[in-house]
């Protein structure tokens, strides 16, 4: 765990609610262009960790360094401006806005002041063109003028990623991007993330083991807020503690999602 | 585990957006009717209609400004009447010092209201939800009791203006017709300004924050400065309503800024339809006409008014505007 040239360095990060330890001394190093998947049973504290990395929740201890800068105390919006964006496990789009507007407002956040009161933003060519390019990258061009609230679940998941991309982020934290998607929708999203790997650094929380093992450069296993194993897929798959705690002893290919651990976070 | 719930599209949001587009036409129709109203009084010879209509437009202006933060910013301010009061007292206090020019009074009113909004808004916006309501209510009441204690300007009894304000030294507003069209012009101007703001970059951030503040932070916005700016703009417009109100009735009283008045402004916005800009104008008209009409039956008219409000809220989500649209258009969109 030497100070490498990692894009994101997490050191001894912790989060407690009274006596309850949700994140327990987590340390990670994510180099540029790595797709790092965090797996773990329900209630392991995966979403809490994403909340801490993205600035949604404050940490009780430890350090988060992004691109050489200590961002531990920065609020979410300032982390986004520095290039660390996230998506949400439960889709959190602006439902009354069109797909294009959802993306364009993310472009707007990083291009010039938003204290402009006169020109109608809907006709801002620069914002719309950039937003349309991002939508096109995700294959959502024909949905551009549909209201986000009326899109299918899979399209909403895609739009979540489009919005995160549109912030201009170098690194994306994706919280269960495949949650609730159909088989076909999930295949589209997996290919999308495979393509994103070429240009972005990603941390992914995911339960779908097929997707996890086909995408991951490295995997970290979180149990009760602790990283019990971290490494390339083959290594993690063979790790005895992981097999015991999470994957189940007899069959490591398919993980029973609800294995172990209550708490329900 | 939670994915199924996210598929439900909030239909009412779509409805609000549709009505914003049609709101322009609704407003145009209302402004046209208002502009032609003096012709009616010419025929009937009943000048009282003009007085009521002027009063409606003044409160419509205040309600419109409230809609800017309530309907588009989801900021439930329960102290908006304080800004109307600031406008009214700017007229009274400047009059006491011999300054009667409408433009000077308006400038002072807007400047003081903007400053008051900046300070109280910066503090209020540190809170959310019910606490925001309570703290804006508290600031409004502070100002209310301050004016009650200021005996130099009438205290509790209020301050009677000797005449209406002058425009470049001329007593133009003494003519009710001029007063009427002045108020109409200010209302139309404020409506166009608000519409432009809502459609701008700034307005998009405001609307986005209303829909989902966390989402806005997740794309790199800190919403508070935008909300504070909207709060200041809304307060400034409400102060203009206060300047006009003082002029119309030639009397200023702390009662203008009591919390009941703030509540009435919220009622006008909700009654007419939040987040439409045209709605609050209709809401103010409905409110004041009902007040006139019901109070002619009984002094307990507020009982009947409460009942009507209850029915509107229960059965017509978009307020009066939504009701009219449904009656005319029939079916829902989407």
Give a written overview of the molecule.
- The complex is a heterodimer of chains A (265) and B (334).
- A six-stranded mixed sheet of chain A has the order 6-7-8-3-9-10, with helices on both faces. In chain A, strands 2-1-4-5 form a four-stranded antiparallel sheet, with helices on one face.
- Chain A has a single domain (8-247), classed as P-loop containing nucleotide triphosphate hydrolases (Rossmann fold, 3-Layer(aba) Sandwich), CATH 3.40.50.300.
- Chain A has helices spanning 46-54, 76-81, 99-110, 125-137, 153-166, 183-196, 209-215, 233-238, 240-247; strands at 8-17, 20-30, 35-39, 61-66, 69-70, 84-86, 171-175, 201-205, 218-223, 226-231.
- In chain A, helix 3 (99-110) packs parallel to helix 5 (153-166) and helix 4 packs across helix 5 (153-166).
- Chain A has 265 residues and is α/β, with parallel strands linked by helices.
- The longest helix of chain A is centred in the middle third of the chain and has 14 residues, at 153-166.
- Helices cover 72% and strands 1% of the residues of chain B.
- Chain B has one domain (23-34, 47-329): ABC transporter involved in vitamin B12 uptake, BtuC, CATH 1.10.3470.
- Chain B contains 13 helices and two strands, in the order H-H-H-H-H-E-H-H-H-H-E-H-H-H-H.
- The model of chain B is unreliable at 1-16 and 330-334 (pLDDT under 50).
- In chain B, helix 1 packs across helix 11, helix 10 (259-272) packs across helix 11 and helix 10 runs parallel beside helix 13.
- At the A-B interface, helix 2, helix 3 and helix 5 of A face helix 1, helix 6, helix 7, helix 8 and helix 9 of B.
């Amino acid at each position: 765990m030497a100070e490498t040239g990692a894009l994101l360095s997490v050191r001894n990060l912790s989060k407690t609610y009274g006596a309850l330890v949700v994140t327990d001394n987590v340390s990670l190093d994510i180099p540029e262009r790595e797709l790092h998947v965090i797996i773990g049973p329900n209630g392991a504290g995966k979403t809490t960790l994403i909340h801490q990395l993205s600035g949604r929740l404050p940490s009780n201890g430890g350090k988060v360094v992004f691109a050489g800068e200590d961002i531990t105390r920065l609020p979410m919006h300032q982390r986004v401006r520095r290039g660390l964006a996230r998506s949400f496990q439960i889709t959190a789009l602006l439902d009354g806005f069109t797909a294009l507007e959802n993306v364009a407002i993310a472009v707007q956040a990083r291009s010039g002041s938003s204290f402009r009161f006169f020109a109608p933003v809907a006709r801002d060519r620069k914002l719309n063109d950039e937003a349309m390019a991002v939508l096109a990258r995700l294959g959502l061009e024909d949905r551009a003028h549909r209201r986000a609230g009326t899109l299918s679940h899979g399209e909403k998941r895609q739009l979540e990623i489009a919005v995160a991309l549109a912030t201009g982020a170098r690194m994306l934290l994706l919280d269960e991007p495949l949650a609730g998607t159909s088989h076909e929708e999930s295949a589209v999203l997996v290919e999308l993330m495979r393509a994103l790997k070429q240009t972005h650094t990603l941390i992914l929380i995911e339960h779908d083991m097929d997707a996890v093992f086909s995408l991951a450069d490295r995997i970290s296993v979180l149990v009760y807020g602790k990283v019990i194993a971290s490494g390339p897929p083959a290594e993690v798959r063979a790790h005895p503690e992981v097999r015991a705690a999470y994957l189940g002893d007899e069959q490591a290919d398919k993980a029973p999602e609800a294995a172990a651990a209550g708490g329900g976070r | 585990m939670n994915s199924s719930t996210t598929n439900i599209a909030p239909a009412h949001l779509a409805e609000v957006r549709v009505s914003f587009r049609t709101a322009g036409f609704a407003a145009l129709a209302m402004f046209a009717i208002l502009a032609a109203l003096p012709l009616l009084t010419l025929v009937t010879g009943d000048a009282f209609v003009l007085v009521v209509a002027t009063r409606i437009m003044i409160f419509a202006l205040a309600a419109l400004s409230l809609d800017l933060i309530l309907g588009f910013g989801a900021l439930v301010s329960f102290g908006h009447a304080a800004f109307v009061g600031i406008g009214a007292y700017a007229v009274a206090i400047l009059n006491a010092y011999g300054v009667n020019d409408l433009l000077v009074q308006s400038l002072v009113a807007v400047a003081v209201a903007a400053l008051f909004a900046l300070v109280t808004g910066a503090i209020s916006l540190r809170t959310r939800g019910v606490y925001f309501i309570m703290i804006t209510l508290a600031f409004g009441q502070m100002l209310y009791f301050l004016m009650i204690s200021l005996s130099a300007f009438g205290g509790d009894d209020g301050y009677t203006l000797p005449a209406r304000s002058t425009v470049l030294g001329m007593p133009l507003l003494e003519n009710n017709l001029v007063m009427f069209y002045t108020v109409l012009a200010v209302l139309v101007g404020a409506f166009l300004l608000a519409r432009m703001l809502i459609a701008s970059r700034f307005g998009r951030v405001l609307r986005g924050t209303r829909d989902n503040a966390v989402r806005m932070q997740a794309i790199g916005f800190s919403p508070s400065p935008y909300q504070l700016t909207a709060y200041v703009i809304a307060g400034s417009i409400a102060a203009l309503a206060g300047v006009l109100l003082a002029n119309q009735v030639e009397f200023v009283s702390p009662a203008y800024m009591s919390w009941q008045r703030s509540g009435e402004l919220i009622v006008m916005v909700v009654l007419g339809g939040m987040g439409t800009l045209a709605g609050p104008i209709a809401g103010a008209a409905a409110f004041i006409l009902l007040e006139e009409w019901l109070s002619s039956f009984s002094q307990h008219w507020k009982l009947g008014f409460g009942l009507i409000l209850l029915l509107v809220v229960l059965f017509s989500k978009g307020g009066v505007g939504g009701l009219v649209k449904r009656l005319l258009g029939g079916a829902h969109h989407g």
